[in-house]
Every structure is written in C-alpha cells, then in structure tokens.
Amino acid sequence: MLGAVVIGVSTIAPAYTLTGALGPTASVVGDHLPAIFLVGFIPMLLVALGYRALNSAMPDAGTTFTWGSRAFGPWIGWMGGWGLLAATVLVLSNLAGIAVDFFYLMLAQITGRDSLADLAANVPVNIATCLVFMALACWISYRGLEATKVFQYVLVAFQLVVLVWFAVAAFVRVADGSAPGGLSVQAGWFNPLGVGSFSAFAAGVSLSVFIYWGWDVVLTMNEETQGARTTPGRAAVSTIAVIVVLYLTIALAVLSFSGTGSEGLGLGNEDIQENIFAALAGPVMGPVAVLMSVAVLASSAASLQSTFISPARTMLAMGHYGALPKKYAHVSRRFQSPGYATVVSAVIASVFYAVMRVVSVNVLSDTITALGMMVCFYYGVTALACVWYFRGSWAGSVKAFASTCLAPLVGGILLLVFFVQTAVDSTDPSYGSGSQVGGVGLVFLLGVGVLALGVVVMLVQFARRPGFFRGQTISVGRSTTDV
277 and 296 in contact (C-beta within 8 Å)? Predict the structure, then answer.
C-alpha cells in the first residue's frame, strides 16, 4: 500500500506539476485558483471510485484499454488505450523539459555562474540533456518495480518536505509584509462561479485535471501488487486525498504571496508562467532557494521514471491481447518488467520532445494544455466503461449504485464535456502559447490531432491483426455478480 501510494504521488510529481501549471491556470481563472483545484479534484475522485470497482472485478495491467474493450468492445477500448499512451508520451516530454531547465538552474545556483542557467535555452544542449535523462529513467524502469519503489521513497519525501517549507515561508512573508502581493485569503477564491466564462472554466478544469493526473498508475501495477483486487484501488483514492490537501496549501500560499498580476512576480506574468517556482523560490525561501530547484529536479526526474510504468504496461496488455504486435508483450526474464514496451515508450517520448522543442518556443505550456485534454478523454471513457460494465448489478444496493453508476457517470460526463469544450476553444491560433500550424492552434493539433492519429494507427492494426477487433482475444461482457 505504501509503495503504491509513493509511486502514485511520484507520478503526479507535485513539485514539477505545480511549477508548470500554476501560472497557466491562474492566467485563465485568476484568483479563483483554489476553486478550480477543488473542482478538478471532484471528477478525479468520482472517476477513481469507478477505477476501484473495475480493478476489483478485473485486475489487469491494461486498465483503460482492457476495461474499455470488455465494456464497449475492441474499437472504443483501443482508442481509450491510445488516449492513455498519448497522455503519457506528452507528459514524459514535459517532465524531461522541466528536468532540464531546473538541472541547469541548480548548477547556476550552486556554482554562482548565472550563465549556466542559460544553457537550458540552447536547443541542441537542451535536447541532448533531455535524452540523457530519458535514457536513465528508462534504465531504472526496465529494472522493475522494486528498483522503482526504492528510488522513489527518497525523492518523494524530499520534494514534499521542500514544498511544505516553501508554503510556510510564503505565508510568513505575507504576514510580515514583505510579499509583493500580500493578499489575505478570501472566501471568493473558493467560488468556481466567479470564473468569467464557461470556456475559461473548462480550460481551467482541464489544466487542474492535469495536476492530478498520474494516480491511475497504481492500477496499472495491479498484477504486480499484493492484494491485487483491493490494494491498488485504495492506493488510488489515498493518493488523490494526499495531493488535494497539498495542492490547496501551495495554491493559497502562492496566490497570497504573488497575486495574479501580469507584471513582476504576479502569476499572470507570461515571462514566469512556465516555471513559477524558478521565479518565486528566491524571493520566498531566500538563501536556501536552491532546495526548490533540487526538489523540482527530483520531482520531474522521479516522475519521469515512474511514468514509464503506465505506457509500458498498457502496451504489454495490448500486445498480449493482439491489439499490437506480440513483441510488446515481452517480459524481461531477469527483471520481470515489460522491457520492450518500456524502451519503445522512451524512444517515442524522446523523438516527440525533440520535435516539439524545435517547433514550439513554449513547448511546456502547450503540452500541459494538450495533456489535460488527453486525460479528460481517457478518464471519461474509463468512467463510462465502469457504468456500462456494471449495469444492472447494483440492484438493491445503494453503495454499489453510488460507486459503480452515479459517481463514475457524473465524473465521466464532466470530463468529456471539458474535453469537448477545450478542443473547440483550442482551434483558435491564439489559444495557449499562441503557437500555430497553418492557422490552427498547436494545442488543438497536439490534443485532437494525436487522437486522430490514433484512429489511423488503429485501422492499420485492424488490417494486420483483425482477431482482436473481431472479439477473438478479449470478450465483451458485463458484470454478472452484485458489487
């Protein structure tokens, strides 16, 4: 249980996630940042209940892919699996980018040579460093979950201590009047109805969904976990509960310290939005600001490594059931890990990052927004798969009805609505960083374009491996027992 929660928190990577998401989210919803974090938490919790029910009935490393296939059939199941794979590739590239930025920032702070921090902006150096980080993370993941778990304990504990330290220091600065924003906590900050428009609200929720994303990694480890039918589900819910408390604390601290202005240290300042902690660590923590750089580096490095768990095991399941070539189902005899799928995940993420770093000067913020769309899509599909698979099995049980119908139904619909709204809004070339290709926003191309690519790949796999798509390797069904 503890190992699963630690890996879940590591994959969410609170230090990395917040430094990349606080700015873009605040720029969309202003000082209603805590409200959006709470609203984003609600569908996550509702969906997690559905995940827990599905895991109890069908512990399978394929999670969304397998459960979607059994509930709705192979076509929807395949696209759900593709959505998960696309999300993890996007976040792996983003994790590597954050790790590179803070690696050189840390070197600059330690040596006193500010010029070292500028190396992160050098594209060839940036990409080369990223590839080194990706290779190291892949190597640790290849060695299996026990190596992963030991590596994560230290890094997760360190980043949590530093984040709490940062929050306390920020509140102290506000109290003694040395904070640039110096705002007292307001009840209105927790009111989601105060957000200017539904488009802004949906964009904010998509971004807040991104900050919670990663807890479902504990479900992809279910076949490698003691108590496979119960422990992963409990670990998922526990992980989300820990994270929401931490996030609200940090959000209130940063909002009180900086405010949402567009200049200086305000969260609306575009110059600091990609790395909020890089800008705020010095003013908040003073001479020990280097600890925040180390914490974000540790957070992104730890998550970069633990995030490999999810796509590798999804590919393993897809290879096992014949939705991908059988080589994806290969398990290392020495380390008992999906070795081939792990290496493929690293190669794809590395190539994607290299291309995106050249194409977009704001690759980090663009991939964060697109990732939120991907997460809304495949979480929504999984939640509705829970409702459909357990249909009729909750008769006479209020608890079963709430956990397998009401909660996942509401959570799934909310996430899919946010997905559609964000997809429509992101066609505007000014959406996100303003990067565009042919007059279409880069965020839309990353989000919806990657899903469309999934359809093409799926059709190719159908032509080569029709058995899976004809239901010969995985059967469609429904729960026949009470929950």
Answer: yes
